[in-house]
Amino acid sequence: MRVIKRIGEWFDHRLQLAAPIREAVEHPVPRNTASWFYVFGSAALTIFLIQLVTGILLALIYVPSAGEAWSSLQALNHQVTLGWFIRAMHGWGSNFMVAIVLIHMVQVFLFGAHKYPRELTWIVGVFLLLMTLGMAFTGQVMRFDQDAYWGLGIGASIASRVPILGPAIVKLMLGGPIIAGATLSRFFTLHVFVIPGMLIAFVSLHVLMVLKLGINEWPMPGRIVKRATYDAQYHALTKSEGAPFVPYAVWKDLFFAAFIILAIAACAYYFGPFGPTGQPDPTIIQTAPKPDYFFLWLYALLSLLPPSLETPFLLIGPPLAILGLILLPFLSGEGEKSWKRRPIAVVTVLVIAITLGTFTRLAQFTPWSPHMNAWSGDPVPDRYIHGTRALERQGALVFQVKQCRNCHSLGDAGGQRGPALDSVAVRLTQDQLIRQVIQGGGNMPAYGKNLSPAETTALVAFLETLHPATQSPARDAARDLVLSESSPKSATQP
Amino acid sequence: MSTKPVMAQPSDGTLSRRGFFMKLGILFNGFAAMVLAVPIARFLLSSVARGQGKGYLSWVRLGEVTNFPEGETRMATFRNPLVMPTDGKTVDTACWVRRISGDQFQVFAINCAHLGCPVRWFPQSGLFMCPCHGGAYYRDGSRASGPPERGLFEYPHQIENGVLTIEAGQLPTPGEPIASAARGKPPCA
Predict the structure, then answer these.
(1) What is the model's pTM?
(2) Could you report the per-residue pLDDT of A231-275, keeping only the tens digit for each?
(3) Within 10 A of A36 (CB to CB), how many other CB atoms are there?
(4) Which residues of B touch A148 (CB under 8 A)?
(5) How confident is the model at residue B180 (pLDDT cuts 50, 70, 90)?
(6) A466-483 exposure pattern, b = at least 16 Cβ within 10 A, e = fewer
(7) Closest residue on chain B to A406 (Cα)
(8) DSSP H helical segments within A366-491, as ranges?
């Protein structure tokens, strides 16, 4: 033991790190911050370390070349011992990291930790969130498959809409005129060197500030933060009811860190790695690209926004959101910390969470996308042609062949881009059906040029049969009247 | 151990010899940084600079005119004119060729004018449909429905000795639809 102690002393005489480390480890924290609510920051750091380790391991095999990346991923999945597990750990670690960073952010906001004097800690945290999302997006590109290829195209299309500079930004982003080898190389540089380097620097700064300024005390309703008095109050608090961070609070961080690591490993083991999907060959167009989980809300938003609002929203929305997050500690740097006395803060968090959650959910079954093979894959259910006339059956055939099913469902099968047609005859009269089919409108293409008059007649005859047995089809009462007036021999004369 | 602190600026406001050299040193490093910054910036922005001069574009063959039946729309593939050794399959590009009649053609980019996903042609309904956000286009490439704000991107094309060629080389995006070095002159005049 004495030898170990002497070796330790030899090093510390030269490094002089023991004292500052001891000070950091034993610094007093308010007792009630030793809470399970305070473990998310250290959990995010833990996952970041996992990502560093698994990322370095993946780089032993992965080849960042557009020609070979996909096959090197296949090798990782199928050839290299436990390559699939390391890939799965890295992929699931990424999902967990985004989730934990978001939870950490919500907790910090609801506990008022962004207020004086921790404004800069919050701002650095906002940049850490952006870098985390940047890692998630560039990581998706590393999995160089069809989704990555077309995802880059979507990124380029969005970037190109920046006024004046758009085309230049696209070429800078892609490293050339098209998505190709240079594109993957530069996203590899971002994913492996640039953003992780920045993350390490910013995480160090973030943790340093937590140590220097002290952990945010548990918010008590009515304990108001004032710039003039806060520092003295906090100092008094850590004196009167403080406890050394180690071991008083750290054991919960340790437990949660181990739990998170095991949770990631369990997900990796049971669900396996993500992809890669098909080869990044742009001539294979039978694909429906979709972003990773944490960008699904954006995918939904881009489908649902009115076309004219899309570009302004894309170009103005994100900068405004980031600016709002950065300005937040300056706009509400003082006052109540407790969520119990901050109803607007709570409602804001709920509204954002519900909005993002709804869009994410919608993007999981993409009701706006046509079912590209519904016309050949989903036949018209038997009951819809049971007991129909020849013309109506011909109409059912037109309905199928002209791919109406890609956007319209019948008997719960088919696309959801347009309304379900199970009871369309109740909603639209014969004339309205004809007009809608021929001229389109309300987001439906016009089929006038693609249907012969005979096909239109048959199709509309079939559509008119689509109504529940208990409801009769819509009729234009005036039409009967007009028809009866134009034919004087009609029996409806009084 | 010196006991007298050396300051860049003596308290009386005059510049000391060492202070002057420090400032000169900073200036010298600033110059060195600039010498280094110019090649770094040029290297980084090379892909942009070349694109400004339309240097990426050239004419590529799509195939014999006879490969494309009149009145039909068919997929054709071509190799990007600029190829780097590490590009793999990404330089192979698809496009939709519509032969209206005779020498009348339209060549559409595969990329949806909304966000660049690959559109698919459905001959039965005469529509191009996009799987991503549900954009749809008519057979002549004009917008039919969905989020796109415009019709499909169209490549300039010409027919040389019975071979259909297009001017390609750049990913068409809403911000820069289809670049053409021969702007102003209608390609099929």
Answers:
(1) 0.89
(2) 999 999 998 888 988 888 899 999 999 999 999 999 999 999 998
(3) 10
(4) none
(5) low
(6) bbeeeeebbeeeeeeeee
(7) B129
(8) 374-377, 390-401, 424-427, 430-439, 453-463, 477-486
pLDDT per position as a tens digit, B28-46: 999 999 999 999 999 999 9
Residue A22 belongs to a domain: no
Consecutive H or E run containing A103: helix A83-110
User: Is there a single domain that holds both residue A160 and residue A254?
Assistant: yes
Domain end position, chosen among A312, A344, A365: A365
Is residue A354 located within the same domain as residue A412?
no
> Which residue does chain B place closest to A283, by CA atoms?
B94
Q: Where are the alpha helices (DSSP H) in A332-407?
A: 343-365, 374-377, 390-401
Same domain, A338 and A419: no
Note whether A194 and A238 are same-domain residues. yes
Mutate to test the interface with B, among A74, A152, A157 (most CBs of B within 10 A): A157
- The structural domain count of chain A equals 2
Tokens of A446: 């016009």
> Among A345, A365, A385, which residue terminates a domain?
A365
Question: Which residue has 């940049």 as its token pair?
Answer: A127
Residue A208: C-alpha distances to residues A43, A217, A434 (Å):
16, 17, 70
Q: Which CATH number fits domain B57-168: 3.40.718.10, 2.40.300.10, 2.102.10.10, 3.30.70.660?
A: 2.102.10.10
Reported ipTM: the value is 0.87
Q: Which domain holds residue A95?
A: 28-365
Kindly state whether B126 is in contact with chain A, defined as any CB-CB distance less than 8 angstroms.
Answer: yes
Domain ranges, ordered by start, for chain B: 1-44, 57-168
Residues composing chain B: 189
Q: Has residue A13 been placed in a domain?
A: no
Asked if residue B89 lies in contact with residue B82, where contact means CB atoms within 8 angstroms, the answer is: no
CATH number at residue A391: 1.10.760.10
Residue B165 to chain A, least CA–CA distance (Å): 18
Cα–Cα distance, A8 to B180 (Å, whole number): 70
Nearest to A51 by CA among A110, A92, A107: A92
